[in-house]
Amino acid sequence: MPETVVLDATRATTISQILVEVVSASNRLTRVAARRTGNTESPALLRTLSTLIASGPMRIGELAVESRVAQPTMTKLVRTLGEREWVRRIADTADARAWQIAVTKKGERALEEWRESMGAALLPVFADLSDEEADVLARAAAILHARIAGEIGSAASVTGPASSVVEEGAAR
Amino acid sequence: MPETVVLDATRATTISQILVEVVSASNRLTRVAARRTGNTESPALLRTLSTLIASGPMRIGELAVESRVAQPTMTKLVRTLGEREWVRRIADTADARAWQIAVTKKGERALEEWRESMGAALLPVFADLSDEEADVLARAAAILHARIAGEIGSAASVTGPASSVVEEGAAR
DNA sequence: GAATATGCATAGCTGTGCTATATAATTGAC
DNA sequence: GTCAATTATATAGCACAGCTATGCATATTC
């Protein structure tokens, strides 16, 4: 196995190029999806919801890290989500500065409806995928999800049990 | 092969779900990429550039369709691209209302640099992909690109030869 | 040549993202 | 136990990408 360094450099280049193609394809797919669904749904809100559903209630700061946005951005998103009653804020008994953010039933339904409408909107473009192509897409999504989930050292999902049930507005 | 209808419905559901997973993964990947690159580059500008490079000079309206944005959005993007000297506007001799938008060398370089920095930024997260995983991602990107390109009836790339070489600001 | 259609620009809004900074609570040092 | 430093969220204010509605100029059609 000679010239390992050269081989590795080549391989890194190849992987980089593939990643760029994936990002580029993602970028376009996002636009196609936005236009076909009529653009009424917000990716950021749904991303936040699905993070919460996947990992359970967590603090705003943790949510910001998981969702890859700055903390003030997440504060805004959580406010909007709260106004729609898709999440509720639960006081954190261990730290009066913090809140646990939890998805409501309504929020779960909203995400589910979004997934249905997104699937329906994109289906016509992809309906005649071969089984093999469909499999490739499914595996690619799984690979991306796994890598992205693993990208953060630890984060979240460690917070769960410490929260109380005091709703916002109640005496603290 | 009995119950074709039921089977097809099931298959449609499966494909829909896969597509939703792909969109969801894309959405997250976009955020990871934005954060890791330091977020200085704008996806919309680069999407426009790469469309122009792939399909050659075209009108603002065509570019809007290809890039899946509304026409006023594209007008703004083209203005920004022009200010950066990444594109130039060429008068369309066949129609005085229209412009042909063409990428400059500077624009090509900007896209190339973006691709390099994006690849470098994401590589650490994906460096230890197996050859097989890398292949799955590459094929998924190709499938998405092909479908998205095919989604529009015809559009663009039919416009090329009709344009002149009169630069903006020159007598029209 | 007047009416209609088309291509682009402008105005003005919303939402998502950012940084810098404020406020309040917690933690740590002494 | 109090004061300083740190931490969690909120607020302010900005930029940009997206949209719809609409205006303006040029083409096209009858």
Automatic annotation (TrEMBL), chains A, B:
Domain of life the protein comes from: Bacteria
One Pfam assignment: MarR
Limits of the HTH marR-type domain: 12-146
GO MF assignments: DNA-binding transcription factor activity
Protein name, per record: MarR family transcriptional regulator
Lineage, opening ranks: Bacteria, Bacillati, Actinomycetota, Actinomycetes, Micrococcales
